[in-house]
Protein 1
Amino acid sequence: MKSSAIPGTLIPFLIMINGCARVNPACPGGRALVPFPIETAQPAALRKVSGGYRGCVTSAALSPDGSLIGISTTATPVVILWNTRTGKVQHRLVGHTGIGQTVAFSPSSQKVATGCTDGDIRLWDARSEKPIKTIHVSRNAVRSVAFSPDGRWLVSRGDGRIVRVWDSHSGRLMRKLAESEAIIQSFAISPDSRLLATGSSLGSIRLWELATGKLKRTLLRPGGPVFSLAFAPDGRHLASGGLLQNDGDLALWNIGSGMAERSWTPHRGRISALAFSPDGKTLATGSGEDDGDIGLWDTDTWKLMQSLPGHGKTVQSVTFVPHTSWLLSGYSLDTIRLWDTRTGGLLCELCPERQEPRRQAASGLMER
């Protein structure tokens, strides 16, 4: 089917067939939206799909091209790659010997990095599930890994005072960046891959040159651990989420001046996850307390646009789905949810295999 759309016009990637979302063949390159298996004709409670995993989710990552969700859990060292187009498990990454802690995709979506309590980082081919390289970090757990946006670096964090910067191609350790006293709780990489921000258990936020390891600036907070960090897409601002006097502490920092332009309390308890939308117009904040709520904030007015209800556990991650108004959230309980940020509606829920609903959807993507 040829498209008659004017150049630059957005062509809907999903079309509704028998109440189910399907790929629109008129969409060039298939890049406008990600075809999650959503049955919009049914109540949200029935829009459940098996994620192919078992246990509580420790990490949920979306590939930059939107085609895969990487899932690690407490039940097994096997990492799941779930295909968003078919609604089924595409690969199972087998190799770790501990409990999976973290999953990250390369900017090209062709490689996956996984970290585990066995102290290793493993690199995989996302297309074939073949292992590429094993990096032996330490005897302690690897809690978080991330590729730099230019794909050059891989950054990892454990339970101590050090973040490590690796060559993502060779797996060679390039440098260690250390806090003098505090434990590093979080990190984020700037969109231009030049800066690494680290947040500590004592409230310090440090900005490092990623290529040299040089400390550029320390941002001063009143105290309390920093559990989450996120750079704005323009690279000029950094959001930090933490805990201060039992309440969530959210701050927006100007990278150039090193000053906090705004700070407020969006949630009860710690802020466990942060993400800016690709256009920078929305900031998503995730609660680390029992409510598990997600707040969506207008970055022009800083007013709350939507509050997405949780279900009793910590929000582990929030990720905006490319080219959509959708948000993917992972929880420490056992589910992964897909939201429409415009309406606040729940679109789809990935569940462990044992919670797979016993009903057949018209699309064939939800099986008995």
Protein 2
Amino acid sequence: MKQFSEKTFSKNQFSKKYSRSDRFNATLFFLSVSLLSLTAGCASTNSAIGDSVLISDESKAVSKAESKAVVVDQFEGVDLYGSYSRYDPHSSIEKRNAAPKGYLQIPNDSLRGFGRWLRGYPMRSESEPLTTYGGNFLAEPTVVGGIIDLPVVSPGTGSREVLYSFMHEYAIVMQREMELNYRGLADDSVSMYLYATGSYSTNFNRTKYYWKETEEKALDANLLNRYTEFVRSVSSYKSLIRDCQEISIADVLPGDLFIQYDFAPRPKGHLSIVLDVAVLDPEANIAEIGASLKDSSGDPYQRVFLFGNGLTPASSFHIIKPVKPGKGNWIVPGELASKLKHIGPGKFYRIPYQYLR
């Protein structure tokens, strides 16, 4: 791939090219685009979970204490959900799903920016049923844990497409669109910057990309749509898993993923998005914790989760309802994999995007 000297873009340059409604329409477009893959080498395992986290534009390592301060400050003055004229913070995922008795939701200052933003995302009315892409009735609202306020705009929309819609909407909100950078089936990456300043082509099996400099394109929603389409064309489900970072259950935070994938005899998979996490209160009275929150030995689980889910055919993105009642919509370790055991075993992963921190 041709080497070049990267030009300097103002972080506001792209967002200012189109209105808030256009930005929201661009976000909805991402729902119709299937199978994007994650950046290659955005962060190492140690940088994401170790004692320091890479979060600044200069990739400066900062301590956990410093990173908490940055997470708090980065939302100051930002219209996080400006696309929703009817937005009510009391309808958010976090507010509508209080932690079960004996548990505490992880505080915002311990989260990455994307996870904090995601748990505040709006939900629809509690009486709204589960519907398909075409608006057909699929199930009563009691069958799921609540509908996330994200339109289904394509018959191909699934959990992976919703994930990328969330990620791109967050990039737009934080005015970091030019940091988008994906790897598909090749070792080279496809960056938004290069796409805006040149043109890409691929070899026959799309395992190598070629770039040449051209006249700079207008930075607008249409360009972002075309870039996303190209990335989709050179991506696969396998590349999603390859570029994620596997994490332990003790490190899971809102914005992380639970991916179940079976390679044989025919590849099949499912992705659930972690919408929120609650931890056992060290001062909790164990006797008052419900039986559905305890393991076979009678000990309460250390962590419980809220998971978001999409279905095939394409339907409303929703919170998964647990198998065992008595704990709201919170799911205990192992319960989700058991509920979807026909897909295959699952693991937790983290998306190593710099702009999501």
